[in-house]
Amino acid sequence: MRPTAERSARASVAGVNPTELWDFVETARDEVEDPTDTDAVVEALAAQLAERGPEDVLAFDAALSHLLADSYTTDLWAAAYLVNGGASDDGFDYFRGWLVAQGRDTFESAVGEPDSLADVPAVRAAMAAGEELESEAMLAVAWDVYESLTGDELPDTDRAALPQLEAMWDFDDEHEMRVRLPRLAALAYDED
After folding, report:
1. Residue 5 confidence class, pLDDT cut points 50, 70, 90
2. Which residue among 1, 5, 126, 152 is least packed, with the fewest CB closer than 10 Å?
3. Of 1-5, 105-109, 116-120, which gets the smallest average pLDDT?
4. Contact (CB, 8 A) for 146 and 152
5. What is the mean pLDDT of residues 141-160?
6. What angle do CA 18, 19, 23 make, to 5 degrees?
7. Which segments of the chain does DSSP mark as H helices, in order?
8. DSSP for 127-153?
C-alpha cells in the first residue's frame, strides 16, 4: 500500500532535529558574501532546501515552528519593539524570522537574554539608522520551496503551538524598558 501524501508528511516530521535546521542556516550564511544580508541568506537556504526535497522541507518547517514558539516571549517582543521602533504581532514574527537568519549563537543568546541584542553590530547599525530588522521571507522559505518542488501548498505539519505570553507591560514606558532592557534602551533613548 502506497502512503498518502499526508501520512508521508507526518512521518517525515516525526524525527525533526533542530540541529539540522541550524546546519542549513549556518551553511547558507557561509555561502553568501554578506551574512548580514538576510535576503541573500534566505535565498541560499532555499537553494539548499530545494536540493534536499519535499520531506526535508517539511522537517525544516516543523523545526522552524518550534524555534519560533521558543522565541515567543514578552521580553524578546519588548526587545524587538526597541530595535524596530515598534513591533505589531506580524512585526514581531518577522523580527524573529530575521533573528533565525542571524544564526544559532545570536538567536539563542537573544532568546536567553534579549538585551544581548545590544551587542549585535547589525542591531546597533539598524537602530542608529532607524531601520527595521525583519524577514518575512525566512518564515515563508519552506512554504515557497515546497510549492516550487511539488506544485502543492505545504501540508499541515506538526507545527508547534505558540505558548502563552507572560504578562505584557507598556513597551512605550521608557523607565520600564530601561529597567528590563537597559543596554537596548540606552541605544534607543540616549543621544550620542
Report:
1. very low
2. 1
3. 1-5
4. yes
5. 91
6. 120
7. 5-13, 18-31, 38-52, 54-70, 74-84, 89-101, 104-112, 121-129, 136-150, 174-180, 182-189
8. HHHT-----HHHHHHHHHHHHHHHSSP
The CA–CA distances, whole Å, from 178 to 79, 94, 111, 160 equal 11, 24, 18, 32
CA distance 10 to 187: 45
Alpha-carbon gap, residue 177 to 78, rounded angstroms: 8
State the pTM of this model: 0.89
Compute the distance between CA of residue 131 and CA of residue 96 in angstroms, rounded to an integer: 16
Q: Is 96 exposed, middle or buried (0-12, 13-18, 19+ CB in 10 A)?
A: buried
* Amino acid at site 109: S
**Polymer length of the chain:** 192
